[in-house]
Structure formats: structure tokens, C-alpha cells
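Can't attach files on this board, so I'm pasting raw text. These are the components:
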Amino acid sequence: MKELILGGARSGKSRHAEQRAVLSGLDVVYVATAVAGDAEMAARIGGHRARRPESWLTVEEPLALAARLEDNAGPGRFVLVDCLTLWLGNLLAEGEDVFRRERQALLQVLPGLAGPVCLVSNEVGHGIVPANPLARRFVDEAGWLHQELAALCDRVVWMAAGLPLLLKGAS
Amino acid sequence: MKELILGGARSGKSRHAEQRAVLSGLDVVYVATAVAGDAEMAARIGGHRARRPESWLTVEEPLALAARLEDNAGPGRFVLVDCLTLWLGNLLAEGEDVFRRERQALLQVLPGLAGPVCLVSNEVGHGIVPANPLARRFVDEAGWLHQELAALCDRVVWMAAGLPLLLKGAS
Amino acid sequence: MKELILGGARSGKSRHAEQRAVLSGLDVVYVATAVAGDAEMAARIGGHRARRPESWLTVEEPLALAARLEDNAGPGRFVLVDCLTLWLGNLLAEGEDVFRRERQALLQVLPGLAGPVCLVSNEVGHGIVPANPLARRFVDEAGWLHQELAALCDRVVWMAAGLPLLLKGAS
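---
Top answer:
C-alpha cells for the assembled complex are below.
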């Protein structure tokens, strides 16, 4: 099963994905896309890490997500990716070539992975259109990516106030 | 049937509305409210246009939306308006008198139109309250307009990641 | 019954909460958290007040929400709090100690209140992540507060275009 967990900031996306991982009863591989570039981000990463069971394997991958999924997904393993929005920001910072290559690789690899994969991503497009062209680009790319991934996933959930709302698939 | 398709940026609103138009089996009139004021907007307009069937009649109307609906709606025709948020921005740029007149005209005309009409609009009020008073005004007016239109429509859909979530009416 | 009404700006949250109050058939206590610091806010407050029945008791409380709920909640009374986002902003402006004390007090007091309470709050975390650290903090705290309150409430509704979407509980 491929899952996409969407929601706003602090909507409970990561926690819901972590519960899905625990409920699977499988070995869990946690793919972290965050890069601790400043103290605030380091604190956020630390907070997420403290909540995860020690038995989970953590893989840090800011860019080559498709390759890491191919390495780690398989029967008996639950792969949790948190989160796609940071990954997207990392890709766009690397330039158009890296962005297009890695984005396309994820979309190509995802359907063929043998085991369950759960992707967490931020909904960022429901506020006022940003005045900053880079922010506008980011909002566009996040929205388009979510549409393409949702079409490939079996289950899509939108989180609000820690509560899951099913957009696709069974609860 | 009157429909309102809401959703964030790149949530698949236009595509869903276009699918509704195709599924209707009717002649389609596409009312475009966008004005190509800069290169970015021209590119967005071009992208939308390339996706539409050639058989559709396109009507460009940045302001007098009620009049264009009265001209074009009727049995056997599906009228698709994309999008209300740009129209609202156009109206507010023209000043209070034009804004109030055209907004009121749309609300008065809509219920009496004989054929199906599908209105696409952006959800912009779920981010942080904008510091800019004009942006705040825009968020307020968009929200109030959506409420009044939703009360008049038979079907209201909220889009996320290309997936429709029904807020009112039947799927 | 404890209820949480979430939604974006001008999504119809207050109106929905007011309808719930009227439908309850109980005496209504309206707890207003807004402080009329400028003309725009005074106008917003005036608009809300003009819509409320004269029989409702209005209590203004920018900070000590838990104490006001203890004073006013009880069998035969419907307490409506509008809104938590303004209250949260008021608390953060007072400093960390007041913020932590009052936030914790609300979470402790809410489950034990004898009568129905309806809390209105703004969803602010679905736009682009704000560049301003204070805005980012506000988005984080609003999201975390919503998660904790939603877990304590019997009914959670997300409003869009004046239409309620049930996230938890029965309609």
C-alpha cells in the first residue's frame, strides 16, 4: 500500500504516519529529508526523533529519495518518508536539473515498490498567493506533486487538528 | 445544476471542472476571467488553454461576469467560469462601485440561469492572516463570496491533491 | 458536549457556532476574546455583535479563558467562545509564562465543565510557511492547540464556504 498524508503545519501528519507505521507491525524505515541548517530546524528534527521508537532505522536523505526507497522498500518493511515538502525545497535549491530528475525518479519508482510506503507532505496552497515568485513556484510545485502522487497512491488522507479525513481509499 | 469548485493553488480545481464539463456531454462555453498582465500570468493562461478541447467556445470577461453568464447559459450548454478569485481581484482593482455592482449582479443572476454553470475559485483563507490590509480585504471578500455562492449552488466540492471532497450535494 | 469549530478566514465558523447555540435552546453566554486595538478590529467586533441575539450574555475575556469558562459553564447554559486564535495571540503577546499557564488551564478545565461549550478557532497553517519567526511560532502553537483540543472535544467541524464538514463526532 502506498499512502499520502497531507495537512497543514502542526496538523498531526507525522504523528498519524507514525501510528500507521506502528499499526503495520512491520519493521520501520524512517526516511528523514530534513537538513538541520539552523537551530530552529535542528530543534524540530530533535523533537520528531525523540518521539520515534528506537527500533526504527533512520535514513537521512535530502535529495535522492527514489534511490533510498528502492534500497529500503520491500515486503515486511514499512517505509515512512517525512516529509516531501522539505525534500521539494531541497531539490529546488539544487537547481532545475536535479529537481526534474529526482521528481521524475520518485514518480517512476513509487508504483513498483514491493512494500508499504507512507509519504508525509505539507499542504501549503490554501493561503493568500505569495508575493515572492520563489514561494509561488514552491506552492505550484508542491500542488502539482501532490496531485501526481495522490493518483499513484492507494490511500490519501488530509489531516486537521490531528484528525484524519479520508480523500481516497479505505480508512 | 450550479456547482462551486473550491481548492488551494494547484489542487486540481480547473481539471476537475473541465472533467465535469466533458462528462456533461453538452456544448461548453469557457469563461476566462484572467487578464494577461505579465509573462507569468500569460504562461498560466496558455497552459490552461492548451488543455481545453478545441470545440469549446472561450469568452474572456474580466469584470461583467453576470452579463456573460446571461448571454451564454442555457439548456444544452455547460458554462465553466475559471476563476472567481481573479475576477474578484479585477473587481477590487476597479474600485468599490464596480465591485459592489458586479458582485451583486452575479448573486442575483446565478439562481435563474437555465443551464448548468460551474464556478472555480481559490481557497485563500487558510494561511496566516496577511499583514497587508489589501490582502486581508481580498481574503475577507473571497470568503464571504464563497459562502453566498455555496448557499446558491447545488453542489460544492473542495479539492485537495486532485481529489474532490464533497461539501454539498451528490457526487 | 464540547465542540471545536475550525475553518479559514470568513469560512462561516462564527455563524455556524451561533446556529449551534440557538439550536441548543439554552441560555447563551458569548465569551469574546477580541480586544478592539484598532479601527479595523473594532469594526469586526461590531459586525459580530450586531448579529447576536440581545438575550445573549456577552463576557469579554482576552486572557483568563479557563476562569471565565468555570464561571459560566453549567447545565442549561451554552457557552460559545469566539475565538481561540485571538486569545492565543493575546497570550503570546503577554509572554511565555502567561501563555503556558492559561493554555494549560484551558486544557485542564475543559473536560470537567458540566454544560456545553463551543470553541471557534481559525485554521492558519495551510499557506506557505511564514518568513516571520513570530508568525511561524503562532502557526505552530495554533496547530498544537487544535490537536489537543480536538482530542478533548466530542465534535470537531471544519468549515469551508459556510458548509460544515465533520471531522469528529455526529452531525
